[in-house]
TrEMBL record, chains A, B:
Organism the protein comes from: Thermogemmatispora tikiterensis
UniProt GO MF annotations: DNA binding; DNA-binding transcription factor activity
InterPro entries, alphabetized: ArsR-like_HTH, HTH_ArsR_DNA-bd_dom, Metal_resp_trans_reg, Rhodanese-like_dom, Rhodanese-like_dom_sf, WH-like_DNA-bd_sf, WH_DNA-bd_sf
Protein name from the UniProt record: ArsR family transcriptional regulator
Lineage of source species: Bacteria, Bacillati, Chloroflexota, Ktedonobacteria, Thermogemmatisporales
Signal peptide: none
DNA sequence: TTGATATTCAATAGAATAATTGAATGATTG
DNA sequence: CAATCATTCAATTATTCTATTGAATATCAA
């Protein structure tokens, strides 16, 4: 009877970990992680995801279905597109936890950054707290240098949208009497690096914020979010 | 040149996500998740893990090496055993984030609990806050009903060790004039359920704490931890 | 040294996963 | 209703992952 009981405990555990492994398996492909990373910025159509990842549309579709089967993403129709998004903030937290675990333990990650983004040595990135200090005392302007639709989906409270691609043509509108803080998708996105490089080349006092929208939200700080009720209409 | 630049960006991203996928792949097996779950309680030898998971030792060893290659676990020799443990609290947070994502989105998980642990309907589990309230006002006794070595590795500040297997023979030592709160490995562990059932059958006022040590620690609350400097000696 | 013990290694077969291609579906627009 | 477009499906192949077995290695104790 004690034996029977532990037999059935085993069956319970087997089923429990098998269910949780559905999520683990969904995280087991670099392409799917890239998709999650993009979706953490804003919802997107299959086509948009294919363009950004340089993968065939059919491949992206299949990966999205795997993510959907693990309930990590949601789909909705809009027009003739299907728009995928993270199932919840819980999924964003999972992705951030995975990334942080990598940062903590995979030396190769650090190596990648020093190899590919060597200019980061020059100027330190601002932490959330440092940025808030500057912003709350009016000593800095905050720029969201991501594409406009990501800004529309969700952005930091005091941010102005100025995609890095348009930055060069709008330099004259920027102030020279305060700091300029640029943020993008997060620590592995280069938009803010490029923005800071360009701004500094033109004599501005520019800094990169080390985080993006998902990390900001995870900290419990407020965001300006698109009314998704509206965005799903049409 | 713009083309070249985006080509090299792609190479960077490919390498980035490939590195992070090392961690995702490590999470892609139910057995490895069970190993992480056990290691979140306390370090263990290969043999102990094999016994608890009812897997062949060689299989456990191989899974541990996969976890080690992804830097999720550490090994050290002690005597003629090798003791594995989580690489850091970051890994515990990752595991908890994965589990929570499952709880949020996998209906099958909830179904499993109602099927296998139907007695949970009878009495609600205590939240951390509810338990702290009772404990700080001296109205409850806290029991750690896990095996003794897990208690030794780390336990909640006010807890007394009384493994569920020994509970029946120590009933006379327990107070009848206050609440008794039992905790175990966490929400999917049955030790506390069994303890509460036994205690209630004998007229005690017993409750299950809904969390275990990893969740307690994640909340930033203090633990009593074994001096690992000592434990590695010998 | 020898023997016992804990763990890892190596080889294998079977299962699951991934990418690719082209065709099919299904909704929207004209 | 036909044409268009976004997405999915189906079938294939190549690859990777998993579990199992028995042998090998390394450490400790006698």
């Amino acid at each position: 009877m004690e034996y029977q009981r532990s037999e059935s405990k085993r069956a319970f555990k087997d089923q429990l970990y098998e269910q949780l492994a559905r999520i683990g398996k969904a995280l087991a492909s670099p392409h799917r992680l890239e998709l999650l990373d993009l979706l953490a910025q804003s919802e997107r159509s299959v086509e948009e995801l294919a363009r950004e990842t340089t993968l065939p549309v059919a491949t992206v579709s299949q990966h999205l279905q795997i993510l959907h089967a693990a309930r990590l993403v949601d789909v909705r129709r809009r027009g003739r597109h299907r728009r995928y998004r993270l199932a919840s903030g819980e999924v964003a937290r999972l992705w951030l936890a995975l990334r942080r675990t990598g940062e903590a333990h995979l030396a190769e990650l650090e190596q990648l950054v020093t190899t590919w983004l060597p200019e980061r040595r020059h100027w330190p990135a601002l932490s959330i707290d440092a940025a808030l200090e500057l912003l709350n005392t009016g000593r800095a302007l905050l720029l969201d240098v991501r594409p406009r639709d990501e800004y529309a989906s969700a952005h930091l409270p005091q941010a102005r949208s100025l995609p890095v691609a348009e930055l060069a043509t709008h330099l004259s509108e920027l102030p020279r009497d305060c700091e300029i803080i640029a943020y993008c998708r997060g620590p592995y996105c280069v938009f803010a690096d490029e923005a800071v490089a360009l701004l500094r080349a033109h004599g501005f006092r520019a800094w990169r914020l080390e985080v993006g929208v998902p990390e900001w939200q995870e900290r419990g700080l407020p965001l300006i979010e698109e009314r998704s009720d509206f965005s799903w209409q049409v």
